[in-house]
Inverse folding.
């Protein structure tokens, strides 16, 4: 069963102007507001979201990812997702939103790509 909490840790990225949001838990209807608040607070030019410790995303979480993408586009901010597990990747592919997002196997790959 998926955890019903979401922890968000904010760290500086490997390069200037990059910030990393490291998520731990589930991104779902109960935790989506925590994610949205963290996204809203960020003003960096490049935001990388580390999903290495996210075990589950539901449709509300998927909607939050799309909203983060739209917000980044409007703010002309780079946004990338890294470390998504098979369940999360399958959800993105099944709903065809994977075409919107830049995803990378690791946060290091994302940092290098957005440099």
């Amino acid at each position: 069963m998926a955890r019903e909490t979401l922890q968000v840790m904010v760290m500086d990225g490997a390069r200037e102007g990059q910030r990393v949001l490291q998520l731990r838990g589930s991104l779902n209807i109960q935790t989506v507001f925590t994610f949205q608040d963290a996204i809203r607070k960020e003003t960096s030019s490049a935001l990388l979201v580390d999903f290495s410790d996210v075990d589950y995303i539901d449709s509300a979480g998927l909607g939050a990812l799309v909203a983060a993408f739209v917000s980044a586009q409007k703010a002309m901010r780079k946004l990338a997702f890294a470390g998504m597990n098979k369940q999360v990747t399958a959800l993105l592919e099944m709903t065809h939103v994977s075409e919107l997002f830049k995803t990378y196997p690791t946060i290091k790959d994302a940092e290098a790509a957005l440099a």
Remarks:
- The chain has a mean pLDDT of 91.
